[in-house]
Amino acid sequence: MIARVKYVSRFSRPMSQREIEAIVARAQEHNARIGVTGVLLALGEVFMQIIEGPAHQVDSLLARIGRDRRHCDVVIVRRQDVEQPLFAGWSMRLLELGEDARREAQPLLDLVREVAEGGAVAKTALHELDDLVWRTMNDRVATLRRTG
């Protein structure tokens, strides 16, 4: 069994695409060393990430993310124990969404802001929206696997 964790966080400050790509490059190196795989979606001012690997490594990485000053308001959306990784071979992959998907994700961005402000109802709704976002990310991952 391995752990799979989905979390969202807000940027602590505005970030350029170049900064986000640098974060991904560093994560690729670190994650490859510790046996963690995953994907990162940076949308608006929000990170949404799925990481998977040995539970102790995932927990250590989450603690590191929690201390990272580029993140604020880290919220664990879902944690699961699973048999197989979904992102084998991807120590970290940056997902890019098209404009339509960005527009559809706006409710999620609004919800993340509300969760960060402590909205209990929003936390429940975030779990519901997780399914929608998960399907969108899965579609994008499938496309990336087909096209390389």
Structural summary, described in words:
The chain is an alpha+beta fold. The chain has one domain (2-147): Alpha-Beta Plaits (2-Layer Sandwich), CATH 3.30.70. Helices cover 51% and strands 27% of the residues. Strands 4-1-3-2-5 form a five-stranded mixed β-sheet, sandwiched between helices. The mean pLDDT is 82.
Short description:
The chain has 148 residues and is α+β, with helices and mostly antiparallel strands.
Q: Roughly what percent helix?
A: 40-55%
CATH class: Alpha Beta
Main β-sheet, in a few words?
Answer: 5 strands, mixed
Span of the ends, CA to CA? 27 Å
CATH topology: Alpha-Beta Plaits
Q: What is the 3D form?
A: globular
Query: What's the β-strand tally?
Result: 5
Query: In sequence order, what are the helices and strands, one letter per element?
Result: EHEEHEEHHH
Quick tags:
51% helix, globular, alpha+beta, 148 residues
Topology:
Elements: E1 2-11, H1 17-34, E2 37-43, E3 46-53, H2 55-67, E4 71-82, E5 93-95, H3 99-104, H4 106-116, H5 120-147
